[in-house]
Write a structure and sequence with these properties.
This protein is α+β, with helices and mostly antiparallel strands. Helix content is 25%, strand content 34%. It is built from four helices and seven strands. A seven-stranded mixed beta sheet has the order 2-3-4-5-6-1-7, with helices on both faces. α1 crosses α2 and α3 packs across α4. It is globular and about 40 Å long.
Length: 165
């Protein structure tokens, strides 16, 4: 087992968003027709290198319940027609919108696209009606720049914990 640090971050006003406006060729579209197999594919494509494994053992019914629920929206980022990354926004209780999953596919990591993709994710989270707070979490297994990207966009840490993994 290894010690993993988990950081829980929040943004309490859309005015705190520090936008990164250079897209580096990214186009972002919402996947409006919900298909759980698309979410499962994106989860594996982006998460494989960062040890995302909490959903790997899910059944098709579990994936369908998660990905096709009304409280979840998915956006896919592309460059020249290729999937470059994605993010999911999940509506929680108390007017909280969670950036549930966010990331880039391996060929697009380290090319300066993460700041723009995160900017768009946060901007769209604030546009989802009744959002009073946007939350996200990351951990020490994630990309080394993940935490700093969240903080550079305007998120602040409200909780930190050590877990065994």
């Amino acid at each position: 087992m290894t010690d993993v640090t988990v950081w829980y971050l929040q943004m309490q006003s859309p005015h705190h968003l520090n936008q990164k406006t250079e897209s580096h060729g990214l186009s972002i579209d919402e996947s409006k027709v919900k298909q759980f197999k698309v979410n499962r594919f994106l989860y594996q494509l982006v998460g494989e290198g960062w040890q995302w494994h909490d959903k790997l053992g899910w059944t098709e019914d579990q994936w369908r319940d998660y990905a096709e629920h009304d409280n979840l929206r998915t956006w896919i980022a592309k460059v020249d027609g290729s999937i470059a990354g994605y993010f999911e926004l999940k509506k929680q209780q108390d007017n909280v919108t969670e950036l549930a999953y966010f990331g880039l596919a391996p060929p697009f990591v380290g090319k300066g696209m993460g700041g723009y993709l995160l900017t768009e994710a946060v901007r769209l989270a604030w546009q989802w009606e009744t959002t009073d707070r946007v939350i996200v979490n990351t951990c020490s297994l994630d990309h080394p720049s993940a935490l700093s990207n969240y903080q550079a966009r305007g998120f602040s840490i409200y909780c930190e914990e050590k877990v065994k993994q």
